[in-house]
Each structure stands twice: as C-alpha cells, then as structure tokens.
Amino acid sequence: MSMLRSATDELVGQDLRALGDDDLACDLDEIERAVRVLEAERSRRLAEFERRGAHEGDGFLSLSAWLVARHRLAPSTATRRVRVARAMQAMPQAAEACAAGELSDAAVAILASAREAYPEAFARCEEALLQAARTLPVPGLRSVVAYWQQAQDLGQLSERRTSGSSADASTRPRCSAAWCASTGTSTPRRVSCCCPRSRP
Prior knowledge:
The structure is a single chain. The chain has helices at residues 2-12, 21-52, 63-71, 75-89, 92-99, 105-117, 119-135, 138-163; strands at 173-174, 178-182, 188-192, 195-196. It is mainly α and 200 residues long. The chain has two domains: 1-89, no CATH class; 121-200, no CATH class. The strands form two sheets. Strands 1-4 form a two-stranded antiparallel ribbon. Strands 2-3 form a two-stranded antiparallel ribbon. β2 and β3 (188-192) form a beta hairpin. α6 (105-117) runs antiparallel to α7 and α7 packs antiparallel against α8. It is flat and about 70 Å long.
C-alpha cells in the first residue's frame, strides 16, 4: 500500500501545464486502467472481508452498513459495491478481465445484473457476454444483455410449455445460436451468443 500512496503522491505533485496533449491523453488512459484495476481489487477484498464476517466485529449486521459508516458512502453506492463483489466471485472470467483493467464499472454492473437474473445461463454464456462487454460501448452492452435476458425468458417459457417442470437439454437456452447486439445506434447486428432453441 505504501507504493500505491507513493504513486498517487507523484501524480498529485506533477505540473500538468508542462504536458503536451498526447501525453495528457496517455496519462488519462493509464489512470482509467489503474482505476479499473483498483476497483477490481476492492471487490476482491470486499468479498474476502464479508466471507470472514469482519464487519460483525465492528457491530454491523451487513457489509453495506459497515461501508456507509466506515467510508461515508451513500447506501446505494455501498449496496452496489457489495453486490458487484459477490458477483465477481461467481464470474471467474469477468473477474480476470476486471483485474486486467479491461472492463468499466458500468460494464461490470451490467454483467452482475445478468448473472443475478439467470445464474445458470450466465455460467454457460459468460465468455460470449464478456466478449460483448470488452468490445461494445455501455449502451450497446445494455441492449445485448437485455436481448439475452429476453432469450432466457423465452427459453423458460418454452420449457414450461413442452415439459412442465422438467425440461430436457433440447429446450434449454444454449450458447450456439445468434443474437442481436446494438452497436450504439438503432441498427442491430448479429453476434454469437445464447438464445433458446426450442423443439420443432
């Protein structure tokens, strides 16, 4: 942690007026990546802190409440951080991408919501969803995930109609079909992902 403090102190003490436009842009790129890596590390440490129940030693029933008091966060911010930290434990590929600084906090939150809604389907489709998170802007990713969730809804409806409470593999959503991914405009494009395949 002392190295982290030294690095931030060095940044704070730098005379920005001496930097050219390209140098300043590169600095912003590096800072963005560093922030993403630090956010991933915060999530990892929050998950471990909660696993130990360390917040209870300070008299708090939840980690969110501990964060509100300790770091003076808004309750909604504390809840979101805990939610993402928990989700990262169940999204190994996404967690690895976060640790490498490849995903923004907004993209991580979208993926976490998708996993919460359909944990089993997300486990099958994590690689494809992660690729969308790496390559699409946030509005495009949000559209992709919304379409994916609709596909899961249709898959579950198909299962209920065809086999009641027990569905075989032929009616479950798979990761081999195609979906529509928004590119940030009103025109969708085709990308590989998970859509339900129903019996003929």
